[in-house]
Design goal:
Layout lengths: L2 E5 L4 H12 L4 E5 L7 H11 L13 H8 L3 H10 L8 E4 L2 E4 L3 H7 L1
Parallel strand pairs: 1-2
Antiparallel strand pairs: 1-3, 3-4
Length: 113
């Protein structure tokens, strides 16, 4: 498994996801969205796995202005804005190769094992 966890240190669900993998002895790479966002290739892979950019957006984000702006753009513009403002996505985003989940989903991660 090649696990990547995208989130922030303040996100309780991100910390729970990291603990989930630690407890099972599964190595993972933690990416802090405040410091480093998604690469174009990473974001494309995640979007294919989760079913589009709207599945990734967090309607409860603190950055409501950016969320509303992104929500009403065309898909290509949404993609670029999410790259610029990665904190508008639901956390954590957990990626395992071509598979990905949005939010805390331990039932799906158990299947990956």
């Amino acid at each position: 498994m090649n696990i990547q966890i995208f989130g922030t240190k303040k996100s309780a669900d991100t910390r729970k996801a990291e603990r989930f993998f630690k407890e099972r002895g599964i190595k993972f790479q933690s990416i802090d969205l405040k410091q480093k966002g998604f690469s174009k290739k990473e974001l494309t892979s995640i979007l294919q796995a989760v079913g589009g950019i709207d599945q990734l957006l967090d309607e409860n984000t603190k950055d409501q202005d950016t969320y509303v702006l992104i929500k009403y753009l065309i898909d290509q513009a949404k993609f670029e804005k999410v790259q610029e403002h990665p904190l508008v996505v639901k956390q954590p985003v957990v990626r395992n190769g071509q598979q990905a989940t949005v939010g805390y989903q331990p039932d799906v991660w158990k299947i990956w094992e």
